[in-house]
Structure to design on (342 residues):
């Protein structure tokens, strides 16, 4: 019986040094593991720590292997599988651009208002909205607004409650 | 005289196939070019197109080289240097977690309200806010709120007006 595949959101805290992102991603690519979305940004500039959020789909066996390999990389401090860990918050950011005549733009403004998207730029004939939500919510907004261009961030995640993704103490 | 380094925001539209992200990032890592932030997400599921937003710093010579190399990768459709192209919108998403006693949480709620951050999760002793803005605006929020944990997306960008990052027609 084939093991069920499941979508996992994994957060990794890494030393922000050249090539670390390439090594993390190479670990997926080298084994044919897929990355659905990825975000990376420095979260503690004083200590040069970056947090990588990865959404991937795989069997429990594959996910366990990914986590073990990630934890073995030298510049990796901590690996957290938020899907297994329990309750967490997942949000994504999208910028959507709508162009067209007056009617089209007014319709877009109405939909954006209903769906809590915010106008961040406007020019004659062109509006840009910023929306945050779960990936599904953003998909729904995009389906309704029918933008000419979309730029999305991928999933940003954080655990609920007092469990914190912390750096290991320096050796 | 040393050439001035400058921060560039580059958007790349790619075929969403295994290994494409590894190749794009490998191109930076292999030459020691730095990636300040990176986001990737599918923007046109029907056509399997993903958009990668990369923020990098370099001299004009290095940036031109990066763009030329990116454009040569097979699954890459279009490369857009938004910094050179002119007016564009840059936004980032952050989730910030604050823990503490009643006083501490009420203070965080006040700061969040002033800075237009939105409460997305609350538990006894623990709040999670979602904030969007320029990277600088998020840095300022984080400095004021002093969260115990931060998860950020990296920069999402889109050009102003009618210039659109489009896929090349199929050969």
């Amino acid at each position: 019986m084939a093991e069920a595949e499941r979508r996992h959101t994994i957060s990794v805290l890494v030393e922000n040094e050249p090539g670390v992102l390439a090594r993390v991603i190479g670990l997926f690519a080298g084994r044919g593991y897929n990355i659905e979305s990825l975000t990376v940004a420095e979260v503690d500039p004083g200590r040069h720590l970056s947090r990588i959020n990865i959404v991937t789909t795989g069997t429990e066996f594959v996910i366990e292997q990914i986590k073990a390999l990630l934890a073995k990389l030298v510049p990796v401090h901590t690996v957290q599988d938020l899907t297994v860990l329990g309750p967490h918050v997942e949000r994504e950011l999208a910028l959507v651009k709508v162009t067209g005549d007056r009617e089209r733009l007014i319709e877009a403004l109405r939909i954006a208002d209903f769906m809590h998207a915010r106008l961040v730029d406007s020019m004659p004939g062109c509006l840009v909205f910023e929306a945050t939500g779960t990936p599904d919510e953003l998909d729904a907004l995009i389906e309704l607004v029918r933008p000419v261009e979309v730029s999305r961030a991928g999933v940003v995640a954080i655990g609920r409650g007092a469990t914190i993704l912390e750096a290991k103490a320096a050796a």
Observations:
- The mean pLDDT of chain B is 90.
- The CA atoms of residues 9 and 55 of chain B lie 5 Å apart.
- The helical segments of chain B are 20-30, 60-72, 82-85, 102-114, 135-145.
- The radius of gyration of chain B is 19 Å.
